[in-house]
Amino acid sequence: MALSRVPGDDEIYVGGIFTLRRKSTLVSLGITHVVSVLKYDFKDFEDWEQYAHLSIEVDDVDDENLLGEFENSGAWIEKALKDGKDGKPGKVLVHCAMGKSRSVAIVIAYLLRKYPHHTVATALGLIRQSRPIAEPNDGFMAQLELYKEMGCPGDIEAQPKYQRWLYQREVDLALAAGMAPDKIRFEDEESQDEVKEGGKQVELRCKRCRRTLATTPYLVTHTPKSNMFSTVLNNGPIASLAEINSPPKTPSTNCTSHFLHPLSWMRPALEQGILAGRLECPNAKCGAQIGRYAWQGLRCSCGIWVCPAFSLQKGRVDEIVGAAAPGSGGPSAGGAGGIRLPPGMRPKETL
Questions:
Q1: How distant is the alpha carbon of residue 90 from its chain centre?
Q2: Is residue 209 annotated as part of the catalytic site, yes or no?
């Protein structure tokens, strides 16, 4: 299967590297633009200069960063189709080595960007109507889901979720080498995604001194196995650094710990550069041991493995539940039904 047209109004074709050898086919189809999604030297292809060319040099491996290319490639394809050549609409060939993974992922990203009604699954299904072998690797599929979740933004680099995803990759590389990461991303010091209004807001306080330790936006949500709908989560760890603005879930009574994202009060412990250790109350007059951390992960009492893990023992903290302040998307600074924060804590410093 050398070349397949993606069903729909757009003149987009998917193929492998050998498609470029079929000069007569490309001419007959009127191909004007080519997107190459692989590392290759194209100097030996005949009449190569007649095509406008976009090169994306990536390997077909799960941990390759293709997500960062989605906006640029999508905008390029859209312009190519519209402006074309010699005053006529363009026709775009997107290819990789086999026309199965990398090229298909780029086309899916274009469809998500151009047609918001599409999901990753429906876009892939559309391509498979003419190219049954279409199957991006698992890493690319996860990146496409994240791209859709972010709303296919024009500036991916500025998205907190993208920045968090990049950091998770750095952490994974460090852990693969048996080391704690050199750089630590403290979530309360970073820009955050907009949190939806409504729902219960949770504040965790040290049971001994009542110092606020964390609030809803910085809790890692996970669902006990008995309540899970996804077999994917049953079979692997929750990458906690990538979960920060998931809809809050009601903590399970089976869980004996709360899991958090790294927060600045943990700095003295985490910047020691060791893989695991204790978490102590940041109140200098208290210093009670309230939990522990492990970059290589911890298993919750409910059976879910969270990695990396920053946990507070439920027996060492109080859980205060209140309503979100209207329009705030988070804990209120005070008022009936809201969570009252300690005096002097500014909103941007809120944990």
A1: 32
A2: no
